[in-house]
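BUG: 3D viewer hangs when loading the predicted structure for this chain

Environment: internal workstation, default settings.
Expected: structure renders.
Actual: progress bar stalls at 90%.

Input used:
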Amino acid sequence: EEKEEESWAEPVGTLALEVDVEQQRAEIRALQAMQEEPTAQLTQLCKDLRESVAEARAERQRLEAIRDLEKLKQSLLRQAEGGELRAGQEEQEEEEDIDEKYLLREAENAELELDSDMKDIQLRMKKMQAEMEALHSKRDALMSEMREIAEEGKEYDEGDDES
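Structure tokens produced before the viewer hung:
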């Protein structure tokens, strides 16, 4: 009767170890999938940030070119009129100066918003890095636990071989 119980105990113990190892492997696969998702999000955020920076730079260059053209226009008008500007042109220049100042303010606001977005993204990156480190730590702990279980299984199997 005792031998019969031992013959049943061996397969049940080995099966339990195999099930536990499979569960550990499933958890590791799930952790790896979770780890890949923040990396993809981070990559997309960086791509979006690069595009925003490029757009802001292009807008600023456009505004600077407009300002330079306005200065050139004013200079040419002064030369053509002998330094005297008509009242209508002065009014138009004042309006253009106001428009230019508005556009420059808009560009500065866009830069400030971009800086804010960059800081936000940096904070997100730090948070994701911390999450990734935690996932790595958990994965390492699970791998260590799996090795221990596998080692126990080997010891158990070796003990059976000796008897």
